[in-house]
Amino acid sequence: MTLNRTLLLIFIVLVLHSLFAMTTGWDHTIMDQHGFRQAQTAITIEYLLKGGPWFAYETPVLGPPWSIPFEFPLYQWIVAITVLIFRIPIDQAGRLISALFFYASLAPLYFLLRRLGLTTAQRLPFLILMVSSPLYIFWSRTVMIESCALFFGILYLATAAKYLDQPRLRYAVLTLLGGSLAALVKITTFCGFAVCVLWLLVADRYFCKRSDNQRGRTHLIYVAFAVMSPFCIGYAWSLFAEAQRLLNPLADFLSLKALNEFNFGTVNRLSAPLWTVLWSRSLKDVLGTNLLVLPLAVGVPFLRREERFMCCLSAATFLVVQLTFANLYVLHNYYQYANGVFLIAALGFCIAGLLRLDGIAKVLGLILLGTSVVFGLYQYQTSFHRVQEINNLSLQPTADAIQRNSKADDAVIVYGMDWSSELPYASHRRAIMVRDGAPPEDPRMQRVVANLANRRLGALVACLTARSDTSEVPRRACVYGLEEVPKFEDAICSVYVAPSHPKPAASCPPPPIPPPFGSLDGPTSGSKITDPLVVVGWALSEAGVEQIAIYLDGRPLDTVKPGIRRPDVQKAYPQFRDSLDAGFQTTVSLAGIDQGTHILRVEVQANDGGRHDLASFPVLLTK
């Protein structure tokens, strides 16, 4: 049997294996891993099917207005249409479309490799590595947009390569279409492929030895257009989506500025934790083991210049994308789906280069390919497959209780689950997820509840630590017109439901006055202090601050009233009438106190008797 046929047979077997592997847990809930993100996509599809808008689509988890769009909903549209046509559940339709996009992405990848001059025997290892990667087997069967973005990203790259070889209008149009859809569906996925288009231009210019300067300039203009146009289209959609999100009183944390800070993060790109994640998790998820980096590095010097170039640039793209969006890649392992293909490409070019050679080099290439497949399948079987076998029904009792005790068009308020769509999707109810624990008296909550108009509040759900305050949760339920005794409780959540007869809000207990708070700017814990001691800080209380008391080893030293202007505090807490003059400063004599370590305590005392320690820590008194 020829090498081509052998590799093709291996590829077919591995495709069948991946298909079989994806069926594990096919009918389970979508809460297996990163249920937060899967449920967010699924609930969007659910409300598309219920007649919601298809552009400013609804993700009803932060109260009305219900539209808080992020990515362009192409994947969601396709899944919704699939549900309508074939009458299958959203979860299974979403998994099916994700899998189809993954397998479809292998076609443009194959043609891209042919454009790069690889033989059939050299192209097949890339496809084999893709269908044996534990990362791609698992995440290609989830209700997420990842494989959709990957397909259009690879299509964009393949058509760009085709245009550089044959500069025709149809290839330019296909490149723009593929790039624009990749950027619209997921801009962070598109970025890696945009980098690759630039690499292609370099390879075309220097390895193909173009002598036509006019053609070279045309290619440069085309690549600039092919990269910038999708970015502009993706950014235009981002502005539209942000405008829709910011109409919601609870969605201020979803502004582009806030999202950019989250996406890029403040992670030090040279920090040990970041590289530990890359070494111990990223490489294993994509290749099955991090040990393959060693033969990859050893094999590169033996490759031809072109293959060495592509191998190194593929690895560089993998790193550039991961380090650019470092915070996302540390927090969410599914983001590896976007750049894992570049790591596979690096290994694939190494194997392809070895297969081009004769003798022992070709044998080493085949051994490297076989080893990669074995490690990939083993890693999948011992990690992701075990996740697929578990049907996570932990929220289902709570969801069933909500359904039993509320109407289909009711809204529910949920505390203690951040802004996750998991419970709203499982209960098929619109929700107001109160991620910061805001009470009913919070102006934002009052606006959101007012926006409900004629829609009834059917339940309040308190989960995990949010239900620890056994007096405040019933009070909030009462204010929202619900029963003060939970109708349902389990180890995770308590559900308070609407009473049979409406209750007047006046009968509810008043809200508790929060304790005073503030900050001690100086001295700091463990610092050296001298006589006299200067104490600086600020304090606030809804009832007003009576004084700040200063103690050393429990002995009263001094008291001071706030009154120093603090514009920074006013900016942070404009709702407090005294915030502009919240600052305090005093100089305390330490005469007669021995040198050495002492415990400094600074306490703010409110007019209503509330007290709070701004600081209690050791300081070192020196002369």
Describe this structure in words.
It is a single chain. The strands form three sheets. Strands 2-1-3-5-4 form a five-stranded mixed beta sheet, with helices on both faces. The chain has a five-stranded mixed beta sheet with strand order 7-13-12-9-10, with no helix packed on it. By secondary structure, it is of the alpha+beta class. The protein has helices spanning about 5-20, 35-50, 75-85, 90-115, 120-130, 135-140, 145-165, 170-185, 185-205, 215-245, 255-265, 270-285, 295-300, 305-325, 325-330, 335-355, 360-390, 395-405, 420-425, 445-450, 470-480, 565-570, and strands at about 410-415, 430-435, 455-465, 490, 495, 515-520, 530, 535-540, 545-550, 555-560, 585-590, 595-605, 610-620. It folds into three domains: about 5-255 and about 270-380, no CATH class; about 395-505, no CATH class; about 515-620, Immunoglobulins (Immunoglobulin-like, Sandwich). The longest helix has about 35 residues, at about 215-245. It contains 22 helices and 13 strands.
Summary of the model, kept short:
With 623 residues, this protein is α+β, with helices and mostly antiparallel strands.
